[in-house]
């Protein structure tokens, strides 16, 4: 879809009413789109540029959904930070920074521009290709699993306080450090995560972000699994094969070293 013709770009750029924006970079991308940065880019038909992109989601004057892709990542990052602080920011990428305009939205939005028709896909005469649609998250699968891991990372304290540390100290804690590690799927996840340290996976499979104190929040994904952890605490594992289940893994003797190694090789926001 990166080859959307100039007519589509012009149509989207003509009075685009911006609703939101997201970053698509190795360190920060909508994980619902893929397990790593190249996979997320491929979902939009984009080449995985080292510096990434900004995605601006909005509606044109007819109410049609458009996703404008810009290589001015800093501009989009400033806009997002301003909005997060409750400040107004007029996000208007310079047309020279626009890589392409894609019909549709890759993410589900519950908002719409006031005074315009309800959001709808642009007509075939201007779209230039099939419209983007959000991944199906109505049933458990990779997209829903990754969204679940996102939620745990965002609400770590709430998830953590539901667990009693005594649950991780029972005899026979499966060698990896307590509850959850005795599950075959979790052992597989930990083994694959260790393999990432020796052989780096595709960019964005392992990401490190801010956490309180001197800790970092780690996020790792792989075929059929997601792992969320704090470098000074435990980990949670989600598996495609176990719908809706969240498996905690205590620190034990091996998890701390694994988390430290993953953090050293992880992609970090600039």
Describe this structure in words.
40% of the residues are buried. The chain is elongated, with a radius of gyration of 20 Å. The longest helix has 15 residues, at 184-198. The protein is α+β, with helices and mostly antiparallel strands. The two termini are 28 Å apart. Helix content is 28%, strand content 20%. It folds into 2 domains: 6-127, no CATH class; 142-265, no CATH class. Strands 5-6-7-8-9 form a 5-stranded antiparallel beta sheet, sandwiched between helices. Strands 1-2-3-4 form a 4-stranded antiparallel beta sheet. It has helices at residues 6-13, 37-43, 73-84, 124-127, 142-154, 156-160, 184-198, 255-265, and strands at residues 17-24, 53-59, 65-70, 98-103, 206-210, 216-222, 225-230, 235-239, 247-249. This is Integral membrane protein. It comes from Streptomyces glaucescens.
Number of beta strands: 9
- Strand order in the largest sheet: 5-6-7-8-9
Termini separation: 28 Å
Query: Which residues form runs of ≥5 with pLDDT under 50?
Result: 169-179
Instruction: State the assembly state of the protein chains.
Output: single chain
The assigned structural class equals alpha+beta
Helix-strand pattern: HEHEEHEHHHHEEEEEH
Helix content range of the residues, please?
25-40%
**Mean pLDDT level:** 89
Number of helices: 8
Binned strand content: 15-25%
């Amino acid at each position: 879809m990166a080859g959307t013709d100039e007519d589509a770009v012009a149509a989207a750029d003509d009075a685009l009413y911006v609703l939101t924006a997201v970053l698509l970079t190795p360190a920060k991308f909508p994980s619902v789109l893929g397990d790593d940065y190249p996979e997320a880019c491929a979902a939009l038909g984009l080449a995985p540029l080292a510096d990434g992109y900004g995605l601006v989601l909005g509606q044109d004057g007819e109410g049609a959904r458009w996703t404008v892709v810009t290589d001015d990542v800093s501009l989009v990052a400033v806009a997002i930070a301003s909005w997060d602080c409750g400040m107004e920011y007029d996000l208007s990428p310079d047309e020279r920074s626009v890589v392409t305009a894609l019909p549709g939205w890759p993410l589900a939005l519950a908002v719409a521009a006031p005074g315009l028709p309800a959001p709808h896909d642009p007509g075939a005469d201007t779209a230039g290709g099939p419209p983007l649609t959000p991944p199906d998250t109505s049933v458990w699968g990779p997209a829903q699993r990754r969204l679940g891991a996102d939620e745990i990372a965002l609400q770590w304290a709430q998830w953590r306080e539901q667990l009693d540390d005594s649950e991780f100290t029972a005899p026979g804690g499966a060698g990896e450090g307590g509850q959850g590690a005795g599950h075959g799927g979790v052992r597989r996840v930990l083994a694959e995560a260790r393999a990432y340290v020796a052989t780096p996976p595709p960019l964005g499979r392992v990401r490190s972000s801010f956490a309180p104190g001197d800790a970092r929040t780690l996020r790792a994904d792989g075929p059929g699994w997601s792992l969320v952890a704090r470098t000074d605490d435990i980990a949670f594992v989600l598996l495609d094969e176990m719908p809706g289940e969240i498996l905690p893994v205590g620190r034990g003797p091996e998890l701390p070293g694994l988390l430290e190694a993953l953090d050293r090789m992880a992609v970090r926001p600039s």
